[in-house]
Amino acid sequence: MMLCGSTAAATQTICPMFLHLSSGREGGEMVIRRLLEDVAGPQSIGRGPGTQRRTVLLTGASGVVGRALLQRLRDLDVVCLVHRSPVSGPGVTTVQGDITEPMFGLARQAYAALAAEVDAVIHCAAITEFYRTDGSLEATNIAGTGHVAAFVAAANAVLYHVSTAFVHTTVDGDRGRTAIGYAASKSAGEELVRSSGVPHVILRPSVVIGDSGTGEIAAFQGLHRVAAGMFAGIVPMIPFEPSWPIDFVPADIVADAIACVVQNQVSQGEFWVTAGEKALRLDEAVVVAVEVGWELGVSVDVPRFVPPEMFDRLIGPVFLDALPDRIRRNVLRMLEFFTTYLQSGQYKPSSLDQLVALGARPLPDQRESLRNTLLYWAAQRGYGPAETERTA
């Protein structure tokens, strides 16, 4: 059977085996069954549920959520499927592989041995950049998810699929359009998981910021880019309503929620790992960023909020055209971030209360978490009182 697994193939065909899911659950199960039988015959080869210490396969271990999970999954044996970035930790082993390839690019014997070892799979690996047009969104977020689901079937395991709370993103006009490809790829990945026939849980984290206590994060995200723009003085205005909620969750809270579901051996359901109605208002988040700047001796002006329609119709064309190309690109990316993640003032659904009932940690103070993540970013970027004093 010929499978489309490479990025090049995805660019040309967007892996039609995975995308043609309109026939629903039966069609998805057939796709996974074909993959599974091609690898290991019609019977699953995993050891199935047992009473011994459980082993989890983690994809995307070098990413923002994956790194935080490695700190949390200490009661389990963790095998990390790594592609390019190495990872390490107590009780952690690694296997070199690529989710965009059938059987993760492993030899048949190695694939079967891995499947026989694993009880659960936490699938965090994903392309999250909005601007990818090289087929990698489809190759990783769709075809890669199909390969993971096929492995789960072979291992007789449970799949914990980490999606996004912005899976249903839509656009109104031109702004936010670049995020549609990412959202569509995550939506297709979810549909593939639902129709695969394997036991699964779907988890939808919100915007992930740094650790609630330290602010540490594996890679800086869009929110950090916005802070960089404010610190650089290129965000004189924000074309959104100040009362709109901006939903974010610290990485350690996201990791704890996922780990709690895995350790409780939940095998079905969908969970929104979001702040929901506890989200800060946009103007409250902006105040935190401005105050962090002032605390570090950086002269940060408070941006002016303007109605979105006024900016798009009157201000934006003049303002953007006057900017140098590099700054204009940065401003446009910040606008894309806000457009995608503010969602016209709507609160996200949240399952945090349900997760807390399972033993997960509750959401910490949002202002303090944001402050800590910005302080960590600022320290990594060289901001601080001492630096300010030298340049004053």
Number of strands: 13
Per CATH, the superfamily of one domain is NAD(P)-binding Rossmann-like Domain
CATH class placement of one domain:
Alpha Beta
User: Based on helices, strands and strand pairing, what is the structural class?
Assistant: alpha/beta
Strand content: 5-15%
CATH architecture heading of one domain: 3-Layer(aba) Sandwich
Largest sheet: 7 strands, parallel
- The unreliable regions are 1-23, 39-43, 386-392
Helix content: 40-55%
Order of helices and strands: HHHEHEEHEHEHEEHEEEHEEHEHHHHH
Shape: globular
CA radius of gyration is 22 Å
Strand order of the largest sheet: 3-2-1-4-5-6-11
- C-alpha end-to-end distance: 67 Å
Count helical runs: 15
Describe this structure in words.
- There is one protein chain.
- The chain has helices at residues 7-13, 16-19, 25-40, 64-70, 108-117, 136-155, 179-195, 222-232, 251-263, 282-295, 308-321, 325-342, 352-357, 366-380, 385-391; strands at residues 55-59, 77-82, 92-96, 120-123, 158-162, 200-205, 207-209, 237-238, 245-246, 248-250, 270-273, 280-281, 304-305.
- The chain is α/β, with parallel strands linked by helices and 392 residues long.
- The protein has a domain at 7-205: Rossmann fold (3-Layer(aba) Sandwich).
- A seven-stranded parallel sheet has the order 3-2-1-4-5-6-11, with helices on both faces. A two-stranded parallel sheet has the order 7-10. The protein has a two-stranded parallel sheet with strand order 8-13.
- Helix 3 (25-40) packs across helix 7 (179-195), helix 6 (136-155) runs parallel beside helix 7 (179-195) and helix 10 (282-295) packs across helix 14.
- The N and C termini lie far apart (67 Å).
